[in-house]
Amino acid sequence: MNEKNLLYPEAVKKLKKDLETATSEWAYLSSVGGGRPVEEFEDDFAKASGGKFCIAMTNATSALYVALMASDIGPGDEVILPSYTWPQTLTPVILTGATPVFVDIEENTVTISVNSVRRLITKKTRAIIAAHLFGIPADVVALEEIVKKERIILIFDAAQGFGAEVDGIQVGAYGDFSAYSFGRSKLFSVGEGGALVCRKKSLYEKAIVFSQHPLRVHKIIENARLRASMDGISMNFRIHPLVASLASGQLDGLVKSGFLSELRDRFKKISEKVVASGSGILPELPDGARPSGVCLPILSANVSNSGLKHKDSDIEIYEGGVPKPLHLTNTVRRHRIISTRVSIPAHKTHKESSCPNTERRCSLPQLFAKTTN
Known about the structure:
The protein is of the alpha/beta class.
C-alpha cells in the first residue's frame, strides 16, 4: 500500500458490503446501541493492540479525556505528563480541572523521563500520562513499577503507538488505558477515529458509562452498583458504524499484509547500521522496545556519516516534530484556554528551565527519517 492507494482491498470490500446493508439496517448507520460493526471492530482492535477491552471513539483526544474521567480525575488532582508531546495530550487534562505537571525527556531520548517522573510525584498525583511518541515506546516497565508502588493510574497516549512492542508484546497491553488515533500519518489509519484500550473491566465499564449512549451502556454494564447509579447523563464519543466497518477491513488488510513486521524489521536493520556508524544520532530505547517504524527521530543535524543517506536506503530525511514545549505555550503561561473561562491551576513546572532537555530539543531543528514508500 502507498499514498496512491490509502486503503487495503479488504477495507474497500467490507465497506461496500456494509454500506449496502446500511440501506435497510439502522445498526450500520447509528451506533447508539453498539451494534455489530462497532463491536466487531472493538474485539479485533483489542486483540491487535494487546489490550483486553476496547471502545471505539471519535479520536485519541476524546479517548484520553474519557480515560481521565473514568479514573475520577478532577480539580485538586495532579496529572504528570511530558512537555515534549502534542498539545492534544494536555487538553483533556485541562478539561478535567486537574493540575498538569510537566516532566522532561532524557537528553538522549524523545520519550518521558522516568527519573523526572519520580521526582515530581506528590500526594496529589493521581495519574501519569506517557506518550509513545513517533512510535517509540515509553519505558512501560519502569512506569508500571512506579504506579504500582504509588497506587496511581497509568495512561498511555498511543496515538502514534500502534505496532510498537516491548518484550514482544504490543504496547496496548501495558498501563490502565491506552488511547489510539486512526488519523492521517498513523500506521493504522482510516483518516479519522480512535479507540480507548484498557485491561481492567472495572475501568472499562466506567469508560463505557461516561462515553457511550445509554442504550449501549445498559446492554454492557454488569456492575450492580454502577448500574444503579446510571441515569443517562454522559458524553457521546461513539464512532460511526461505517467508520468502524472501514476500520475492521483496514485492520484485516494491515495484519494480513505483514507490513507492520516488515517495517519494524526494516527500521531495526537501519537503526543497527546507524548505531554501528558511531554517529550517536538515534535516541536510546528502553530495554526490549521495538518501535513501530513510523519514523526515526534524529538527535543531531549531522547525518552525513550516519549511514542514513545512501542511494539504496529508500530513506527520506525531513524536519518536523513538537513545535514548542507544552509548559511554555501561551495557554499554560496565562493559565487559561483562550476565549473561555476554563482556567489551568498553576504549578512550579509551568516556567522556563523546568524541562531543559525538551526546551533544548524544541529550539533546534528536529529531523526525522522515514521510508519514502
